[in-house]
Each structure stands twice: as C-alpha cells, then as structure tokens.
C-alpha cells in the first residue's frame, strides 16, 4: 500500500487544502490519516480518457475523416434508429435542421441548431453511439460520421476534411446562447390572506 | 399507467397525531376481477372506528356487524425460509415504480421510471421504488472488476478497487434526489393524472460512502483545478462537470443506499452524490473523476440539462433543485368518500438547505394556513408535512407552498413563466402544484 502524498499537497496547494479541510471538518469530520488508492500513470489511462474540452477541442485525437465515408458509416451503423439522412427514425427524432428556431416555439434541437461547440458531436458519438454498440467506432469513423451529420445540417462542405483542427474552428450558431445559472430568479412572497389566486403559465403569457 | 383510483375514507375527527386518519382502498379497474378481502376490510374498520367516536361531523354511519375470528388467528403462519430477500406482501402489488407514460419515449434505454409517491408513508423511498433515469439502460457491473480513477490536475493519479474504497472510514447522510425534468409534462397543461406521473422523479434515501474531498485530497489537488468531471461506466458514458467547491463541500462517493449496497439501477457499485443537485449530476456506475480547469461543455451540459430562457437563450449549469413541495394525499386520481376529516399529507424539500415552513391553501391560493412539519427535518432531504382538513363537501383547490432556510418561497408556475421561457421540455419545475377537489370528491390535476 502506498502512503498518501499529503506532503506533496501541502507544498503544492497549501491554500486550497486549508480551505478544503475547514470545509470537511464541519461537514464530515477529520479526513483519514492514510489512503488506499494506487498510483497509476496518465498514459495507462489513455483508453479511458475520452472526454473532450469542447470549447478548445482539447482531447480530440489525431486522425481525420470525410463526409463521404461518414454517409457510409451512417447508413450501416446509425440509420436503423435515426432514419434516412438523420431525419428521424424509430428510436429518435430528427438530427437535422432547427437553425434559426431558438426564438420560436417550438425550438428545434439538433446537433446543428443546439450544440454551441462542434467537438460536442465528436465527444458524444465516440462515448455513446451507436446506442447498441457504444465505443465501437474507430477515430476515423467518428470524424467521418460527425462530418456527415454537420454536412446534413449545412455546416460542412461535402468535400471537407474533418479533423481536430477543422472541428475546433467550425463556428456554431448557438455559440453565444448560453448563460450560466443565475437563480434564484423568482421572488415569491409568503402571503397568507387576501392573496392572488395561484396563476398558470397562460396567466403569465397573457399579462 | 393504469390509473390507480384511490378512495380515501373520512377518518375520526378526534384522531390522535400519528393515527392515519384516512385509509386507502384500491378501486378495482373496470374489467378486472374484484379481490374481495382488502377493500371491504378497510372500509369496515374505518366505519367501526368512526362509530365509536363521539361528536363527529360528517358522514352518516351505520353500525358494524359482529366480528368473526380472523383466519390468520386460527392457522400457522408461513414457515421461515432458510434464506431469502423479503418482498412486500401480495396486497401491495399495486405499489410499483412506473415508466413514464405521459411523455412516452421511443425506446426504453434512455428513459425514466417514476416513484409512487402517493404510497410512500415516510421520508425514505424503498430501494425498489427509487426513481430511475438512465441514458443507455441499466449497467450491471461486477464489483471485483470495477475500477475508479482520479486523474487530471492532481499530483498523483490514483486508481481504486472496490475493496480499497470500502476500507475508508464512512459517513451516512439522508438526501433527496430529484430529476431536473420532474414535472416537465405539466407546465402548460394538466397532463398527469397522478402525483407519481407529475412528481415521481423524486426519491429520498440514506446514502453511505466516502467524502469525495478525502479522495481528492489524497490524489493532491493542483491549484489550477477549478472543475471536476465525473463519468459513468455505463453505455452512455454519462458525464457531468462539477465546480470543485461543491465537490469539496458535501459530496459523497456512495456505495450504500438505505442499509444495503446500491441497486444496479442506482449505479452499483458506486455513484456520486451531490446533495441538493439535479439527479443527473449524481453520476452512477462512476468510473472516472478528472480534475480540470474548465468544464468540458459536452452534450449533457449544453444541448441537454439546460433551460430555455427568453430571447433564444439557454441557462446552463443550473444544478440546484430549488425549494418545492407537493401534496401526495389527497392527490390526482384519488377520490374523497364524503365530507369529514382528511389529513393533507405531502413532501417538501430544498436543494439549498432545510425546509422551514409549509403552508396549505384550500381555496386556490387566496388564503393559506401553516402545516405541521414532521421530524426529522434535515438538510436537502424530504420533509413530511401534515395538515388536518375538515372537508365540508364543496369544491376546493388545495396546494402546498414551501419556504426554505434561505428564505426562498416556492413560486407559482406563473412566477416562473414570467422569468423563463416555457417551450418544449422545460426542466426545473418547482411550481406550486394545485389539485382540484370536486363536489363529489374527485381529485384532479389543476396546474393549468
């Protein structure tokens, strides 16, 4: 068993550690004086370390794909659930269109309309799709099918090369649409008598 | 969902606290065989009890018949099995988790299943009834094979086996979990019939495990680490990034739930617990923790689990489940059997602290009276409230409104719709939820 490296931590992040120990002193009591984790080197985690920092593209692997190959991958591995040209199938609705619908009702949510950063599609397909065999595509297949879906959404040319650089540079329509949590956003009062009756969504939209 | 129509009998006006003033009797759905026993027993016992009381208002009562010796008193019971996992008695067969059937998904892998809150008698949800939300079905993981990794911006990446993790001193905490999508079918229309359908993505358990802060400290957090990514070992590789302050505050790596190891549906063998935060942040089947300087902004942090806002905007990282409450009895699909005393019961909870007050209205919000909170009242935990109501028999609109320890008052959906955009599948519905009681005692959803 390895000894915990509390010494290194004190040197490296004394202020953070201090803040941390005050916090869990209150919530959980003293941390244990020894630990049981085993050291492992980052390279030995390569097959696990699959998340992508999507705004910067950090984590996108080397390699490249094409829209044409993506169409083949899609027909073989995705179409049964997502339908022809990703326009909706037995397991999921459309993955095409919706750009410009964000101030309409309904908003049409697709990778083209909704994703603020293009590498999101790479991250998601690589980790989660195809639903019946996740993590079974090669890097080249993921780049290709990602290119194909963005092509169907009018964001990528038919002859485009799809790789870490082009995906990171691809500007998405919904990029500036996000605001970070700023709740509480209501200020209800604890009225006890002579109150307004409980209103509905329609009441809010009327006034 | 076959709508389970529940009838509530009026109880004694002088019922002592702790007595169940109202009994449930299952109404047999049309076309189904009538089971003779339970319903008639319940009805009989309530009437008998009522007749013994004096000065009762309400229903007219006839005297009960003479009681025979019950069969169970004249027979041996079931033998004790050599071993087994005890299950509820067959008369409670109807108490089931139920897959969403108001919004019906096209497949049952990225789907959800809801807790029968109308049948939950205390603040703890039994493990077999705990709500489910998965993104690619239920992973079944051999704990011997499972590994947890902590890496990224740390001094020393670490890997843990389950037996490593179980060696740490452990802590236990009671906390609710609620899906951010709870109630999403019931903003603009009264789509749900029962409280299971409208609020059943809510459950509560005692969680046992190791404070995440201890494990991160062991790996040595570098000062640049501001966020922590949590990733599951299921087929969706479900991932959420969490601000480091929350991880270091009250977050748990949980392996225990209500006195036993986690159920597969709850992330066996380990999951994250972020008290008070939306369900999907509490990553199940946890395999990897990575310290990073900024969130990954993956699909589940942008295109999903974000809230539509006016002007085409989206609010993201809206993690806290704000203060909320709902009446579970009487609730949608039930019917009151005649005027008299009913105990209004329900749950209140807040992801920001403790519930301090719950108020009840009987007239659609014009006047409110304070309900009683039942101990224990815990931080970020379901709290039971009770209020005695003498229903005189006219139409009523009943609802609860909770206040938490930050002073936040549960809003109406009108309040919420004034500041947010209600379009599509809108998350974070913590609006006051009214039930209408008709002249004849039928209880229906009155949200719109």
UniProtKB/TrEMBL annotation, chain B:
Record's compositionally biased regions (Basic and acidic residues): 1-10
Organism: Pseudaminobacter soli (ex Zhang et al. 2022)
Keyword tags: Metal-binding, Molybdenum, Oxidoreductase
Residue ranges of every copy of the Oxidoreductase molybdopterin-binding domain listed in the record: 135-296
Name listed for the protein in its UniProt record: Sulfite dehydrogenase
GO MF term set: heme binding; molybdenum ion binding; molybdopterin cofactor binding; sulfite dehydrogenase activity; sulfite oxidase activity
Domain called Moybdenum cofactor oxidoreductase dimerisation: residue spans: 318-424
Biased composition (Low complexity): 54-64
E.C. code: 1.8.2.1
Family annotation (PANTHER family): SULFITE OXIDASE, MITOCHONDRIAL, SULFITE REDUCTASE
Domain of life of the native organism: Bacteria
Keyword Transmembrane tagged: no
EC category: oxidoreductase
Gene Ontology process terms (BP): sulfur compound metabolic process
Record bears the keyword Metal-binding: yes
Cofactor(s) the record lists: Mo-molybdopterin
Disordered: annotated segments: 1-38, 54-77
């Amino acid at each position: 068993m390895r000894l915990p490296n509390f010494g290194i931590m004190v040197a490296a992040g004394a202020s953070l550690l201090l803040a941390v120990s005050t916090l869990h002193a209150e919530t959980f009591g003293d941390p244990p004086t020894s630990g049981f984790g085993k050291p492992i080197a980052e390279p030995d985690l390569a097959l696990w370390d699959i998340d992508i920092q999507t705004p910067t593209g950090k984590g996108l692997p080397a390699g490249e794909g094409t829209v044409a190959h993506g169409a083949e991958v899609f027909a073989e591995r995705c179409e049964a659930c997502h339908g022809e040209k990703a326009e909706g199938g037995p397991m999921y609705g459309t993955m095409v269109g919706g750009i410009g619908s964000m101030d309409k009702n309904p908003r049409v949510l697709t990778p083209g309309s909704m994703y603020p950063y293009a590498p999101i599609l790479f991250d998601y397909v690589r980790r989660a799709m195809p639903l019946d065999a996740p993590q079974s595509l090669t890097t080249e297949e993921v780049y290709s099918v990602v290119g194909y879906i963005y092509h169907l959404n009018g964001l990528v040319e038919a002859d485009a090369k799809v790789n870490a650089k082009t995906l990171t540079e691809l500007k998405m329509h919904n990029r500036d649409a996000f605001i970070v949590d700023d709740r509480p956003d209501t200020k209800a009062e604890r009225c006890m008598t002579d109150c307004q009756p409980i209103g509905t969504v329609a009441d809010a939209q009327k006034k | 969902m076959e709508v389970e129509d529940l009838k509530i009998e009026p109880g004694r006006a002088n019922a002592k606290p702790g007595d169940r003033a109202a009994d449930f009797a299952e109404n047999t759905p049309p076309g189904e065989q009538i089971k003779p026993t339970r319903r008639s027993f319940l009805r009989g016992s309530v009437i008998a009890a009522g007749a013994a009381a004096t000065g009762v208002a309400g229903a007219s009562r006839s005297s009960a018949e003479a009681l025979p010796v019950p069969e169970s008193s004249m027979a041996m019971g079931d033998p004790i099995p050599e071993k087994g996992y005890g299950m509820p008695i067959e008369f409670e067969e109807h108490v089931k988790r139920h897959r969403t059937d108001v919004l019906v998904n096209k497949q049952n892998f990225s789907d959800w299943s809801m807790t029968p809150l109308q049948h939950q008698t205390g603040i703890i949800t039994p493990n077999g009834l705990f709500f489910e939300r998965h993104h690619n079905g239920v992973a079944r993981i051999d704990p011997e094979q499972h590994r947890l990794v902590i890496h990224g911006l740390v001094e020393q990446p670490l890997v843990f086996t389950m037996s490593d993790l179980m060696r740490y001193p452990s802590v236990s905490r009671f906390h609710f979990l609620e899906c951010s999508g709870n109630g999403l079918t019931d903003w603009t229309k009264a789509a749900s019939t029962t409280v299971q359908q409208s609020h059943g993505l809510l459950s509560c358990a005692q969680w046992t495990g190791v404070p995440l802060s201890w494990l991160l400290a062991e790996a040595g957090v570098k000062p640049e680490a501001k966020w922590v990514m949590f990733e599951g070992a299921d087929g969706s590789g479900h991932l959420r990034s969490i601000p480091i302050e929350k991880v270091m505050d009250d977050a748990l790596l949980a392996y225990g739930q209500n006195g036993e190891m986690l159920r597969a549906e709850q992330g066996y063998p380990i999951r994250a617990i972020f008290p008070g935060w939306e369900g999907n942040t509490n990553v199940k089947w946890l395999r990897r923790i990575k310290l990073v300087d900024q969130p990954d902004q993956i699909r589940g942090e942008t295109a999903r689990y974000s809230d539509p806002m006016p002007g085409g905007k989206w609010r993201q990282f809206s993690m806290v489940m704000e203060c909320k409450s709902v009446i579970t009895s009487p609730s949608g699909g039930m019917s009151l059997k005649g005027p008299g005393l009913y105990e209004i019961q329900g749950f209140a909870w807040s992801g920001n602290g403790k519930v301090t007050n719950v108020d009840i209205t009987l007239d659609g919000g014009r006047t409110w009276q304070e309900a009683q909170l039942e101990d224990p009242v815990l931080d970020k935990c379901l709290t039971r409230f009770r209020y005695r109501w003498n229903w005189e028999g006219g139409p009523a609109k009943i609802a609860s409104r909770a206040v938490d320890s930050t002073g936040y008052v549960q809003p109406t959906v009108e309040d919420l719709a004034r500041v947010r955009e209600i379009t599509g599948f809108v998350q974070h519905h913590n609006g006051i939820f009214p039930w209408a009681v008709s002249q004849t005692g039928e209880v229906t959803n009155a949200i719109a």
